[in-house]
Amino acid sequence: MSLQHLLARPDLVRRLTGVICISLADNMLQGTIPSEVSHLPNLETLDLYYNQLSGPFPDMSTLSSLRHMDVDGNLLTGTVPSELFNLPALESVFLLNNRGLTGTIPEITSTESRLLSVSVYDCSLNGQIPTSLAKATDLKFFQAFNNSLTGTIPSELSNLPSLELLSLGANDLTGTVPTFAGQTNLEIVSLGENSLTGTIPAMIASLPSLRILYLQDNQLTGTVPSNIGTMQTLENIWLFNNRLVGALPTFYSNPDTLQQVFLGNNRFSGGIIPLLQMGPSSIVFLDLGGNPELSGNVPSIISSFSSLIHFNVSYTGLSGTIPETISSLNLSESTTCVFFAEGGGRWLSMHTTVTVFSPTSSSSSLSSSS
Hints:
Radius of gyration: 25 Å
Number of helices: 3
Largest sheet: 15 strands, mixed
Helix content: under 10%
CATH class of the domain at 1-173: Alpha Beta
Order of helices and strands: HHEEEEEEEEEEEEEEEEEEEEHEEEEEEE
CATH superfamily of the domain at 1-173: Ribonuclease Inhibitor
Structural class: mainly beta
Strand content: 15-25%
Number of strands: 27
C-alpha cells in the first residue's frame, strides 16, 4: 500500500483537516510522503517509522501544530528542509536510519524553539554542527551519530542546561572535547570515532549526572584526570584507541554502578594493582590490552570482581603467574573471555586449565599457575 492512496483524494483531505494524529508505523508503506500532508493544519503527530517510504520531504511549512515527527527506518532521500526544524510547535523530530538524507543539519532561526529531541542518527549529513542549536534552550536529546559531520563541537552546546544526551560519534569532528561546564543534567556523552585532540577536561568529572562517557577512537593525549574516579554515577567509560599516558585511572569513590571500563590501546604505564584494589566489584568488562608499558603482575584480588565476564590484559608488559584465585570467579565459557597472553588466550571457566601461549618467538611473560 502507498501513503499517497490514503491522502491523494482532495475530497478526503478536506474532511481530514481536523486530524491531529497519523500513526502508520511499521506497515511496509511505499512511495513518498505525499504533499497533501501539508493540508492538515491541526496535525500534531506524524509517525511513519519502519516503512519503505522514499523520495524527498514535501513542503511542511504549513504544519504549525506539528509536535512530533518520526520517520525512522525508511528510504528517504534529499536534504532536510530548513522549515522542519523551525516549526513553531515542534518538540521531537526523529529522522534516523535514512542513509539517503544528505546536506546539512538545518539552522534554528527561532528564538522560541520548543525542540526537545532531535535524532539524525545514521544518515549521510555533512557540514558543521550549527551553533544555532543553542537557541533550542530546552533541548534534551541530540543524536547525530554516524554521519559525515566536520568541524569542531560548538562551545554553544554548553549553553543547553537541559541537555541529557549528546551523541556525535562516528563523524569527522576535530578540535577538543568540550568541558560541558554547568550541564547538570547531562547523562550520556558519546564522542567516539572522531579525530578529537587534546586532553580530557577535568571538568567532565564534575558533571553530577554523567553515566556514559564514550571518547574512544580519537587522538586524545595526556593523562586521565584523577577526579574521574570520584564520579558517583558513572556506568561506562570507553577511552580505548587513543594516546593517553600515565597511570591507569582508579575508581575509588564509585559506588556499584560502574560496569564497563575500556582503556585498551593507549600508552598507560605502571601497574594494574591500584585499579583493581579500588575498583568496585560491579565491573563487568575490564579491558586494558594493548598497553605495552603496563608492568607488574595480576594480583589475586581479581577474584573479588564477582560480576566480571571480560578481562583483557593481552599485549601488555605484565609478568608473573596467573593467580589461581581467578578460577573462583563465576565464569562461563559462553560469555567470558579472559586474555592473558601476547597474541591470544583461552576461554576460561572454573573447570578449564589455562593455557598461555604466544605465536611469536618471544614468549609471554605470564604463565599459568594451574
